[in-house]
Design goal:
- Helices cover 19% and strands 42% of the residues.
- The two termini are 27 Å apart.
- Strand 9 and strand 10 (117-124) form a beta hairpin.
- The strands form 3 sheets. Strands 4, 5, 6, 7, 9, 10 and 12 form a 7-stranded mixed sheet that branches.
- The protein has 2 domains: 5-40, no CATH class; 43-175, Nucleoside Triphosphate Pyrophosphohydrolase (Alpha-Beta Complex), CATH 3.90.79.
- By secondary structure, it is α+β, with helices and mostly antiparallel strands.
Amino acid sequence: MKKWQTLSSKEEYKNPYFKVVKDKIKTSGGLSADYYVLKRRNFAAVVPVIDGKFVMVCQYRYAVKEISLEFPMGGANLGESLKDCARREMIEESGYDTEDLTYLGRAFAAPGHSSQMFEVYLARNLKEVGHQNRDYLESEMEVELVDIDDFPKLIKSGEITDGPTLTAYAFYQMGQSKVPGSESPEEGKQH
């Protein structure tokens, strides 16, 4: 399989949260077409573990009109590393903090239409610090401690449906074993 060529690129729409870009592309088979790409800030998800439980957040997700049980996550600020973003989001959303963050992996949120990527971190040795600097749309967010052994049942029952949360859980299940792409960007630069 060969990569496709970008012949031109034009910003079609932009707001403070995302932009839509229209690319003229040429496939490896020679087909020319327009391809629309949603561009958003990369983000981090964190899997906080304390006493055999995951620290999760429950919030209303307006776009799908459902209450969602998720790991803490959010977009990186300009110039912020995704590891620092993971820690900040965990503090803001769950009220827990740690310096013990381990990179678990990275994935693309929806590669069929978006370039957005996220990294997943495991957080251990947590200490409760209280909620800090929640976004106004997160003011009703609730923290839930979920028994790690109950997580598969919550997936099967449909109580956990958030894609990045499911991806983060898969990385957690793989543990610390090294798989292709499992080194953090910082580790990759050291080789």
